[in-house]
Task: inverse folding
């Protein structure tokens, strides 16, 4: 067994990553099979459409979040950004006549602005990412309640969105695929190309891998980190548009608590908390995996109360497996090296 | 080597200590002893095994074989920090191990806090009083209730000493205690060491500074390449003799003596009265085209700080830099743009992007050429990577290989490669071969020499003296942040450099 494993490592020096991904896909197929065997409704067009849309709603946020994680940061404010964006949107729909094609793109600026605040605080004052974004999340969730549309008694009103142009985003399909899903795929592919093929993308990896070395090599790490938080904010705002459109309403709590789903998607996708590693393909698979689990829980008749338990459990298991796999890989590499040294020693002795 | 006269005189005895970290022997059958109530200095070049023997004595690591006895008790092979403390071995490391935010008393009595009788509640008043008694006994300028954060480095060292004293230490080990102290603080520390000595406590003192050893030590043990070279008694101690023993007269001494031949072409870099307060002062030198200028000196003499300032990492307080005939105001980006390369010390912390491939590591300093606009030219990045790999002979020659998985030597080659494929005029190299094997070392030397012969000027910082003398065309020795002396047009040996770094001026 070790012999074949070392052979494998010698043949594919960096592919523990690829192995991990193949395992994830295999697992997804197996789980899908299991769910179908319990409830054949799973494999119907309607359910799959919903499943992919569900994956996309979390995945759009996760794309931005992945870049933050590659810089070894974290953005806890994403849920707050979703809420505030949705509330701004509801206000505009309720009180103004600004046409949808005009204000929807501007909604992205809400996330960009919040992301800028995050990034500015983190880079300018060298504050810990977690605390800054957690504080901003709190501010935003309060602000969302403050600006929510209220009735005459001051209670938050559940506004139904009736603007067809706005509903175009989340309730309609293109062919047989929801527009949310298409947007997710386009965003994911574009971001993947961006991080692998542009100067700014390279800087993101470098800043996360070793900020000191990156700086000495001429990378503007502050600007890079700032940009990543802006992008994360934009993605969260984008998700807010699709989610509120799909639900045809928006409450001020919208998106609060979605951090868990997003973190799970990114971590399952193979982007670790330590920075310098990761890609969007993994995150896309991760969000699909998560949606599959959630959907499976519903379709197999398990109480939805188990969803958060499953998500938390999956995060822990994934992290354990990653640590374990890293150790095993190091051990095998070390063993291969020793064997090589041994062989050389024997050769020179002979 | 061990005095058998009276076992009671000797506090610590080490016999035939052997230690290896999976590979070459770091300690090769070392005999070592410390007498009761003496100040014993331990000296040797970098890599001679000083810190390893300290680690063995304090239980930070375990020896492979050999006997150790402390205060009449045999120390078993599986030693540990806690056991060393219980025996009465106290250590003051260069990086102090105090907990910020806590008071002096809290630090001294950490894990040994006094309780109110019959409870598990800490009696703070008693703890502060005990600490203050300890402080007063040695008349340290401290208060038990001072918070660590507002103390100077020197005061923190005192707290460390007290911490060890509170555990009834019989042996106090000090690893380069003066490296970050001012003159008056050093004098104070010496006073304290003498006081400890008069209380019958032994002090094991490690320092690069000869004058300190001369002033303090009763005996000196010299290590070289993991072996015991000599134990000198008080009357035998002289700085020149110690240096001679540290370097040793190896057979290849002649091969290690290098004729320096300064180049006098066009001046590429001129530094005038460069000053950064607290780091270096009025440093001036010229660097010619194709010349390798070595910067020698002890660790902490300001060499690294000077080159960091020239590259534009740290600010300069005073002085001027002229680069290619024009006044130059350094910044990292400007330096890269104008043909300056920088190979930092501490490869893992500052040099490599461990989680990224060789290709990306090579690419990162060349983004100006790979992505003049926005989109990265992946094909070109791959070409650069292959060019770099071929140039410095990285093994394995796989562009996709993650740099974190390469050996130390190959990692350093990658750091070299990312600059070599650029059109450089000046390269700053800081400790190029720390922790890499001899084969890779030689290769790196060849690249540095080649670079110079192509007309690139090189500023080389190295603590490895044979390396410095072998590569340099001219050597400047810094001492305490100032240029101490310059070697040019003469035969230079490691010994000469070390003497200069220790503050001994040669008569011409």
Result:
């Amino acid at each position: 067994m070790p012999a074949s494993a070392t052979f494998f490592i010698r043949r594919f020096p960096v592919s523990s990553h690829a192995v991990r991904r193949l395992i994830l896909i295999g697992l997804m197929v197996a789980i899908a099979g299991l769910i179908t065997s319990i409830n054949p409704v799973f494999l119907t067009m309607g359910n799959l459409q919903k499943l992919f849309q569900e994956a996309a709603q979390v995945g759009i946020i996760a794309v931005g979040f992945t870049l933050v994680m590659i810089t070894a940061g974290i953005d806890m404010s994403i849920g707050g950004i979703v809420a505030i964006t949705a509330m701004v949107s509801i206000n505009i729909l309720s009180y103004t006549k600004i046409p949808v094609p005009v204000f929807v793109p501007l909604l992205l600026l809400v996330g960009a602005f919040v992301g800028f605040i995050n990034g500015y605080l983190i880079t300018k004052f060298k504050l810990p990412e977690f605390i800054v974004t957690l504080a901003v999340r709190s501010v935003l969730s309060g602000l969302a309640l403050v600006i929510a549309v209220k009735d005459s008694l001051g209670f938050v009103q559940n506004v139904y969105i009736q603007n067809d142009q706005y509903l175009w985003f989340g309730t309609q399909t293109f062919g047989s695929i929801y527009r949310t899903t298409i947007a997710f795929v386009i965003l994911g592919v574009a971001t993947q190309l961006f991080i692998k093929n542009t100067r700014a993308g390279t800087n993101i990896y470098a800043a996360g891998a070793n900020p000191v070395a990156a700086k000495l090599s001429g990378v503007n790490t502050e600007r890079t980190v700032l940009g990543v938080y802006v992008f994360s904010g934009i993605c969260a705002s984008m998700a807010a548009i699709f989610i509120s459109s799909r639900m045809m309403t928006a409450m001020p709590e919208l998106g609060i608590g979605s951090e868990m789903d997003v973190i799970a998607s990114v971590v399952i996708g193979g982007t670790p908390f330590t920075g310098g590693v990761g890609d969007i393909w993994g995150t896309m698979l991760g969000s699909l995996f998560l949606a599959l689990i959630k959907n499976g829980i519903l379709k197999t008749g398990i109480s939805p109360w188990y969803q958060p338990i499953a998500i938390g459990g999956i995060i822990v298991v994934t992290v354990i497996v990653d640590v374990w796999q890293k150790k095993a890989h190091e051990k095998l590499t070390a063993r291969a090296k020793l064997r090589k040294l041994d062989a050389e020693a024997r050769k020179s002795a002979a | 080597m061990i005095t058998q006269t009276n076992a009671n005189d000797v506090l610590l005895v080490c016999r035939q200590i052997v230690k290896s970290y999976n590979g070459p022997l770091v300690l090769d059958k070392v005999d070592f002893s410390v007498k009761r109530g003496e100040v014993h200095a331990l000296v040797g070049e970098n890599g001679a095994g000083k810190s390893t023997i300290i680690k063995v004595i304090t239980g930070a690591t375990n020896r492979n074989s050999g006997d150790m006895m402390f205060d009449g008790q045999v120390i078993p092979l599986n030693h540990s920090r806690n056991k060393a403390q219980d025996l009465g071995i106290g250590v003051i490391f260069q990086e102090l191990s105090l907990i910020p935010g806590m008071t002096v008393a809290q630090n001294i009595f950490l894990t040994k806090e006094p309780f109110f009788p019959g409870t598990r509640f800490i009696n703070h008043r008693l703890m502060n009083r005990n600490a203050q008694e300890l402080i007063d006994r040695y008349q340290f300028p401290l208060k038990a209730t001072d918070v660590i954060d507002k103390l100077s480095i020197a005061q923190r060292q005192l707290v460390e000493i007290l911490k060890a004293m509170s555990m009834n230490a019989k042996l106090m080990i000090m690893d380069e205690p003066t490296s970050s102290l001012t003159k008056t603080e050093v004098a104070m520390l010496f006073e304290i060491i003498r006081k400890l000595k008069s209380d019958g406590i032994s002090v094991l003192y490690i320092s690069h500074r000869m004058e300190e050893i001369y002033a303090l030590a009763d005996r000196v043990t010299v290590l070289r390449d993991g072996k015991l070279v000599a134990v000198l008694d008080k009357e035998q101690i002289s700085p020149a003799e110690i240096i001679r023993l540290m370097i040793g007269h190896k057979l290849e001494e002649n091969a290690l003596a290098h004729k320096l031949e300064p180049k006098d072409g066009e001046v590429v870099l001129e530094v005038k009265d460069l000053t950064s307060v607290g780091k270096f002062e009025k440093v001036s030198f010229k660097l010619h085209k194709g010349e390798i200028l070595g910067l020698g000196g002890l660790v902490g003499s300001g060499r690294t700080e000077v080159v960091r300032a020239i590259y534009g990492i740290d600010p300069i307080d005073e002085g001027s830099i002229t680069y290619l005939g024009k006044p130059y105001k350094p910044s990292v980006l400007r330096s890269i743009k104008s043909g300056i390369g920088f190979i930092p010390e501490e490869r893992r912390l500052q040099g490599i992007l461990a989680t990224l491939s060789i290709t990306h590591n090579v690419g990162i300093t060349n983004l100006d050429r790979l992505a003049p606009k926005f989109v990265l030219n992946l094909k070109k990045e791959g070409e650069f990577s292959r060019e770099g790999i071929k140039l410095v002979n990285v093994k394995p020659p796989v562009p996709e290989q993650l740099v974190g998985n390469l050996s130390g030597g190959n990692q350093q080659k990658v750091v070299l490669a990312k600059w070599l494929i650029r059109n450089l005029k000046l390269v700053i190299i800081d400790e190029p071969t720390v922790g890499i094997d001899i084969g890779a070392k030689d290769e790196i030397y060849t690249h540095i020499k080649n670079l110079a012969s192509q007309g690139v000027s090189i500023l080389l910082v190295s603590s490895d003296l044979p390396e410095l003398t072998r590569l340099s065309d001219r050597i400047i020795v810094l001492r305490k942040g100032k240029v101490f002396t310059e070697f040019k047009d003469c035969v230079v040996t490691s010994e000469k450099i070390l003497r200069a770094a220790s503050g001994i001026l040669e008569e011409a």
User: Anything to note?
Assistant: The first strand of chain B starts at residue 10 and ends at 20.
